[in-house]
Amino acid sequence: MRTALFVSALAFNLGILMYFKYANFFITNVNTLFNRSIELAEIALPIGISFYTFQIMSYIIDVYKKNVKAQYNILNLALYISFFPQLIAGPIVRYIDIEKQINERTVSIDKTYEGIKRFMIGFAKKVLIADQLNSLVAIAFDSENLSAPMAWIGIIAYTLQIYYDFSGYSDMAIGLGKIFGFDFMENFDHPYVSKSIQEFWRRWHISLSTWFRDYVYIPLGGSYCSKSRLYFNILVVFFLTGFWHGASWNFIFWGLYYAVFLIIERAGFGRVLKKWPKFLQHFYAIIVVMIGWVFFRADGFMNGLRYLKSMFTWNDTAVMDVIINMNLQYVTCIIAGIIFSRSYNLKVLKNDYVIILLFFVAICYMVGSGFSPFLYFRF
Fold first, then answer.
1. 27, 72, 293, 363 — which has fewest CB within 10 A?
2. How far apart, in whole angstroms, are the C-alpha atoms of residue 127 and residue 121?
3. Distance CA 293, CA 133 (A)
């Protein structure tokens, strides 16, 4: 009976996610494969559904495994599921990590100060870097005749945009959590300093990586199995990682793309890579990541291939293309983005007055600009 309830609860939550997020994806592919004309359903995707369904499932799994006790207070359970700071776009908070904090958390002046400061930094990252690069990214990815320099500039801009947008939201969520007395796990740890793809995934979207590690990878056998089984486990996890991000073949390709590099590194290339000079290790990792972002950002798999081709095809309009589309604001944001992506321990961010100034400037930019939602809202 207990197992039946567990399976039913998981199936119910997965069913909701599959219907709202993936129903039309499956209908489209059935129509294509079998030459059918099934009408697409008119489905509005609930904001942040991938995040809170994963939170609910982590609670169900941990209770079933007796890692945590069931929460019988419906208000406390509702607080966990619907806590607004990180509800929309993460980090994915597992019940086991905040079980005690729901009833026994401390709200203090020091923690509130720390939370406000973290919120301000996240807000500035989102508005002053991510939002300012949005139009440059759109110019590159919407262009029908893109030169190689602009293609590289565009993907560098998007590499910074998605990091500052998503990590900015995570900072704001963590900051708001601290104001209410909660300590959430870090979701990013300077991913662009990585020297391998294995390291990148230990630093990028940590809450999602650990979720798949604990609830999919380890139950499949983890690393304590044959090599063929290990590679299979990696393929499964990163297929699901890609599919989790969106109902599109380019997301699935993006996930499997990383699985291939992780398998290559596990198969022996990782040992070879460690013998390279550190700057070459870093160059390898960042190029692999940027090429992956091409397919993550592109509107469809074929458009991703088209963009990738532009990155390695020189044409006569290259110099003029850069002159026409680039300006001082874009250059400043890219340089600042690269500098701050490498370290948050810069002295400038330890000065409260500088943080307040950046926050004030970010508010001014936000008021003077149009609506700019977080990129991860759609996931």
1. 72
2. 10
3. 15
- Give the residue ranges of DSSP H helices in the chain: 2-17, 23-34, 49-64, 74-82, 84-87, 95-103, 109-124, 131-142, 148-179, 197-203, 206-212, 218-220, 227-245, 249-264, 270-273, 278-297, 301-311, 318-325, 328-342, 352-367
Amino acid at 329: Q
Q: From CA 80, how far away is CA 92, in angstroms rounded? A: 11
Residue 10 CA: distances (Å) to CA of 23, 51, 56, 69, 327: 18, 15, 9, 18, 51
Instruction: Tell me phi and psi for residue 314, to 5 degrees.
Output: -85, 140
Task: Fill in the amino acid letter for 62.
Answer: D
The one-letter code for the residue type at 82 is S
Residue 245: active-site member = yes
Q: Which amino acid is at 110?
A: D
Out of 190, 205, 245, 282, pick the active-site residue. 245
Angle between helices 109-124 and 352-367 (to 10 degrees): 50
pLDDT of the chain, 379 residues: tens digit per residue:
788 989 898 999 999 989 888 888 888 888 888 888 888 778 888 888 888 898 899 999 999 998 989 888 999 888 888 888 877 776 888 888 888 898 888 889 999 999 999 999 999 999 999 999 999 999 999 988 888 899 999 999 999 999 999 999 999 999 999 999 999 999 999 999 999 999 999 999 999 999 999 999 999 998 888 899 999 999 999 999 999 998 889 999 999 999 999 999 999 999 999 999 999 999 999 999 999 999 999 988 899 999 999 998 877 677 777 778 788 899 999 999 999 888 655 556 678 888 999 999 999 888 877 666 666 656 5
pTM listed for this prediction: 0.91
Q: Cα(352)–Cα(202) distance, rounded to whole angstroms?
A: 30
Alpha-carbon distance 335 to 81, whole Å?
Answer: 39
Rounded to whole angstroms, the Cα distance separating 26 from 12 reads 18
